Amino acid sequence: MAVTAKDVKALRDRTGAAMMDSKAALEEAGGDPEKAIEILRVKGQASAAKRAGRETGEGLVESYIHANGKVGALVEVQCETDFVARNDDFKEFAREIAIHIAGTNPPPRYVSVDEIPEAEREAERRVFEAKAKEEGKPDRVVERIVEGQLSKWAKEVALLEQEHIRADRYEGKTIEQLRAELASKTGENVQVARFACFRVGEG
């Protein structure tokens, strides 16, 4: 099946992949867009792994202050080149992260799950274990319950694990999924480095 420019554009619009990558994936998939998306995802994951080790010495600090002036957020997003840092998609991503942080109550406390201190994780584990045992759950299921609760808790405190608050706009995607999409689109290692949230009256 011949791959048309219209097919390539449709795939690009859906995935954010480069034109040549979209064309190659469609040709490899025999024109099937769903198979082409799978091919792009596999290749994207492989290239993302290569990008992850590259140094991010550029980027920007973005801010968002709510209309009432009582809540705001700052976020630092890093990339590899000044060219990408000035890109509109990059700027929009940074602003959307700031909006998410300001709009989440309570706001996230860490960028990623890896940043959560082990002592804090263990303290939460003990609380979940005690609660499960108090409810009379059998020992064989306590561990499963605790792991589920820990996973849920991690999503509440780690920014990258959270679905963007504008769920309709971003189809329920997590911040990490949006970050990965931007990294794939720009071809650079994009990282959320740090953030802060400010609320009037809260220390």
Mean of all residue-level pLDDT scores: 86
Helix content: 40-55%
Radius of gyration: 20 Å
Largest pleated sheet = 3 strands, antiparallel
Helix-strand pattern, N to C? HHHEEHHHHHE
Beta strand %: 5-15%
CATH homologous superfamily (4th level) name of the largest domain: Elongation factor Ts, dimerisation domain
Poorly predicted regions are none
The CATH architecture of the largest domain can be given as 2-Layer Sandwich
Supply the number of helical segments.
8
- Reading off the top of the CATH hierarchy, the class of the largest domain is best stated as Alpha Beta
Total of domains:
3
Structural class assignment: alpha+beta
Write up this protein.
With 203 residues, the protein is of the alpha+beta class. The model has no long low-confidence stretch (mean pLDDT 86). It is globular and about 65 Å long. Helices cover 53% and strands 13% of the residues. Helix 5 (88-103) packs antiparallel against helix 8 and helix 6 crosses helix 7 (139-157). It folds into 3 domains: 5-51, Helicase, Ruva Protein, domain 3; 58-110 and 158-199, Tetrahydropterin Synthase, Chain A (2-Layer Sandwich); 118-148. It has helices at 5-15, 19-28, 33-51, 82-85, 88-103, 118-134, 139-157, 175-186; strands at residues 58-65, 71-79, 191-199. A hairpin with a 5-residue loop joins strand 1 and strand 2 (71-79).
